[in-house]
Amino acid sequence: MATPTAALKTNISRWIDSCSHENAVAVWRFIQELEQGRVNPVQTSNAIALPPELITKSFQYLDMGTVIGIISRVCSSWRQLSADPGSYHTLIVPEHLRRKLSSHHFGVLSPRFSEVSVIELERCDRVDDDSLHYLLLHCRALAAVKLRHCPRVGSDVWQKLAFSAVAWSLQTAELEGCDGVNDAALIAIAQHTSQLRHLKLVDCEDITSLGVRSVLAKCCSLQSLTLHGLCEVDDDAFSRLAVEKLPSLTCVDIKAPIAITNAAVNAIARLPLSRLSLVDCRSIGDQALQHLTSSAPLLDSLNHLELSGCDGLSDEACQRIDLLRSLQYLSLSRCSQITDRSIAAIAKGCRRLRVVQASRCVRLTDQAPLAIAFHLQSLVALDLSFCHRITGVGVEHLATGCPNLRSLNLYGIYSLLSSHLKRMPAACQVTISA
Predict the structure, then answer these.
(1) Residue 276, CB half-sphere, CA atoms under 13 Å: how many?
(2) Alpha-carbon gap, residue 434 to 432, rounded angstroms
(3) 111 is in which domain, residue-wise?
(4) 434 lies in a domain?
(5) Is 165 exposed, middle or buried (0-12, 13-18, 19+ CB in 10 A)?
(6) First-last CA distance in the chain
(7) Domains: count for the chain
(8) At CA 141, angle to CA 135 and CA 146, rounded to 5?
(9) Same domain for 183 and 214?
(10) Which residue, 229, 354, 395, 417, shows the most beta carbons closer than 10 Å to its own?
(11) pLDDT per residue as tens digits for the range 270-281
(12) pLDDT, tens only, 115-174
């Protein structure tokens, strides 16, 4: 095992910023052995000779259960180090403790978490608003809260955090499957978390357009917004979108059953987006694409566009995507109306494309891979799975026209023979039907 140099011991901060490969390997192996329970503290001090500062740094990469349940019992010096708040920067509850964790545990452990910057709780059935509030108040450096399927966490915790230091420092909030969270939580977040940059809401059934609209009106530092599976959210969430108040919002990710239409897309298209994802939004049509391709900010800034499952888009409208010259990622999977003409127009106009997803676009023929091979020499990933009209002839064009291809999905195309794939780049991983 590699031994750190003398410079490592005398200049810890410099090492953390730019360590040598040898020292990085030493600490990485040390962390792996900690996780596997194979570290002998005597051997560690002799063979690795890590100073206490780096041992504490290593503890930060472990989950809470490992540090408290295992590390603290190894020896007295490690017990002392594990009690240092600096040992906890990310609080992730291990699976075997999730259903046992309660307010009592938070009461005992919270003083250790003053330096925690990220809290991730998943399926913690006994954690409620009061216990989470008590925990959050002790995390003076908190920047991110990620809650997944915590049924007893509701909106009260966010209202109680109003005017606290946590509210001012919080930059990321992810709430997934938290049935108790409603618009009151989002209104509290909007009013008191002025530094919020990333908001992710997934399968929170009681959130409506009112809550989302409040966030968009107040959180002027917002950089990314993810809305998945919010049944009560519709166009009204974006009806008062003030673009000038959201200069940093560059990523919007929306997935059905959110009932947005062309009107919402028109409002969103005025933002300086670099990433836009509209998945299974079947209520949007050709007018939505007209808004996107007529927006001056998007023509230069948008590099990631996902329209999977938006089967209301016509082939003629999809051809307008060729105006988005900065695109590097495009997904039109399950857009059943697109044909070879759309793919040809897009390939000709969007020469920077590196990833194209066109799974289950059943009208595509060999002309589609031919156009891709002719125009997109920088392509690294292509998905044509279940495009059953494509044959080995079209695939052979890809072998010669896309030398940088690293991933090619042809699953569900049953007419392919092994001879059609012989000329594919050696580094390309090809997926085909068995």
Answers:
(1) 28
(2) 6
(3) 92-233
(4) yes
(5) middle
(6) 44
(7) 3
(8) 60
(9) yes
(10) 395
(11) 999 999 999 999
(12) 778 888 888 888 888 888 888 887 777 889 999 999 889 989 888 887 677 777 889 999
